[in-house]
Specification:
Elements lengths: L1 H16 L4 H22 L10 H17 L5 H22 L6 H18 L8 H21 L5 H22 L8 H25 L5 H7 L2 H13 L6 H27 L1
Helix pairs in contact: 1-4, 1-8, 1-10, 2-3, 2-7, 2-8, 3-6, 3-7, 4-5, 4-6, 4-9, 4-10, 5-11, 7-8
Length: 271
């Protein structure tokens, strides 16, 4: 979850305080992640050529591209909130469709967590821009699809490496199409490389490894902590303001997540 929050902070920092454009950030992020994962795969003396899939790579690219363009005008916390709100909705709906069920206390916890998200999104003077919000919601749906596909992807390192390698030409195509508007500087490139190699490549590999042991609903709910971490990082590192609404919503989100996870562990221990 720290890696996911780090992606929001690095992307927002790059697009707010450096000269890099969103398409270039996406391409450098994905190629950096692919290189980092290729190195990990080779250290393990394996191969990623047959790992991953084009549908998963397309979902990864759609997420990364929409994510970058959304952060042109969204704050770190708001962007992460919209992203993982869409992620959890996608994964929980899929889990329920497939027959997963939540216990009574888990429903209460999920309700608290969702209430915290709603509180942060209520209309007002600080309501997020519509265009950026739609892009980030789309990014969340794409990441939800990617996460669900990852539950049956086999070896997480090889699958993630294969998906990143396949996503690189898609990102290159986007960068070429928007080349007239491309801008680059060292700071922006550095942020994109950190986002790709560390927060994305290594972070996603760890997440993929954890997914097979989680129910879709539980995996989605745990991710609701990311907006809180990203908002806190935005306050500390990017100078974004803190509000009472943020504080109360943070308590609701984290408390709800804790209730869902604790109840799932109790259910597993009793079975």
């Amino acid at each position: 979850m720290s890696a996911f929050a780090g992606n929001s902070l690095l992307c927002r920092l790059a697009l707010r305080q450096t000269g890099i454009d969103a398409a270039s950030f996406t391409f450098i992020r994905l190629i950096s992640g692919a290189i980092a994962l290729w190195l990990i795969v080779n250290i393990r003396k394996g191969t990623s050529q047959k790992a991953g899939s084009w549908p998963s790579a397309l979902a990864l690219f759609a997420y990364a591209a929409a994510f970058s363009f959304a952060y042109v005008n969204l704050s770190a916390g708001t962007g992460a909130l919209l992203l993982f709100g869409a992620v959890q909705a996608t994964m929980i709906i899929w889990g329920l469709w497939k027959g997963e069920r939540l216990g009574g206390r888990q429903w209460i916890g999920l309700t608290f967590a969702l209430s915290g998200l709603v509180a942060l999104l209520l209309p007002g003077l600080s309501a997020p821009p519509v265009g950026g919000s739609i892009l980030m919601l789309g990014a969340g749906i794409a990441w939800g699809v990617y996460s669900l596909r990852g539950k049956a992807a086999g070896d997480p390192i090889y699958a993630t490496a294969g998906n990143f390698l396949r996503a690189v030409p898609l990102a290159a195509g986007l960068s070429i199409a928007l080349l007239p508007w491309a801008t680059l500087d060292r700071a922006g490139i550095g942020c994109a490389m950190l986002s790709g190699a560390i927060a994305s490549g290594v972070g996603y590999a760890i997440w993929y490894a954890a997914l097979p042991g989680l129910k879709a609903a539980s995996a989605a709910t745990v991710q609701l902590s990311v907006p809180v971490f990203a908002a806190a990082g935005g306050i500390i590192f990017l100078g974004e303001s803190i509000t009472l609404r943020f504080l109360f919503a943070s308590v609701a989100v984290l408390g709800g997540i804790a209730l869902v996870v604790i109840e799932e562990r109790r259910a597993l221990g009793a079975s």
